[in-house]
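Hi Prof. W.,

I finally got the DNA-binding LacI/PurR family transcriptional regulator prediction working! I wasn't sure whether to trim anything, so I left the full sequence exactly as given:
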Amino acid sequence: MVNRRTVTIRDVAERAGVATSTVSRALSRPGRVSESTRELVERVAAELDYRPSVHASALGSRRTGAIALVVADIANGYYVDVIRGTQLELGAAGYRLFLVDTEESADAERAAIAALRGATDGIVIAASRLRDAELRSTAALHPLVTINRSAEGVATVVVDTAAAAVRALEHVASLGHRRVAFVGGPAESWSGARRRHTTLEAGRRLGVDIVDVGHFTPTRASGVAAADAVLLTGATACLAYNDAIAIGMLGRLHERGVAVPGDLSVVGCDDVFGADFCSPPLTTIRVPGERAGRAAAATMLAQLRDPDAEAGAPRVLSAELVVRRSTGSVAEAARTA
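And this is what came out:
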């Protein structure tokens, strides 16, 4: 009788009178053994209180017990929550997490994927900068889940910031703003492109002139140039690609003596830590990063359990507008200009 030590797969095999490889198949891929063998192995495993580890399963299935999370910029506060959610979900299932930062580079992302295919059981990519065809080919070779980057045939979790951007525009329109600047992020950003599209459509519906001031690196440093660009447009409000740009804009606007929200209302996106500590506190779109990470990890685990399952429709999470003091009514001077 097995006692006072960790029960191993060999113990189960000896008690059941089968090979260790048979135990592994019965517990990890029951369709590859007969029904009677599966029932026997499961009964013996239960009697011995055998709990297979991810690493033990890897021996029979060639799995590594590791999942990679590839993010576009680890310095971006939004990804902190994504990383936390992914790690918590995978950790509970016994997997290790490999974290890779591509620094907004599509080339670095390609290189990372090529290296990770043989070292991990699956890859989760947040805000991929790759083309649809590249993502599909990757998914055909290795388990893949994307966050905020939808491509046909690829399992995806999407946070609907596009709908929240419309609510942000409706918010500033209700405050009297009729000329609003759209401050874009990376040209390759799928979510950014969706927000630009829905904002332009909503602007036409609301009678608001949307001024596109171009693309900016999603960092606080880029907020300086973004603020200068917005001021040239005559807009009285702006929607920034993310909080990092918006917070950088607040600093630059203060330097130039532009009152926020008196002269210009500013809206960010993500609701990163510190967005409510700004001066003034930032109106922004709250993105559920931890939930997105958990959902992506759960999708990956389901894919590993059933590799032949189709990707299905994207899993969509909602985002909400959080109104703080960086948005306000149009100043009298702006109304009469």
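The domain at 9-61 is CATH 1.10.260 (434 Repressor (Amino-terminal Domain)). Does that look reasonable to you?

Thanks,
D.
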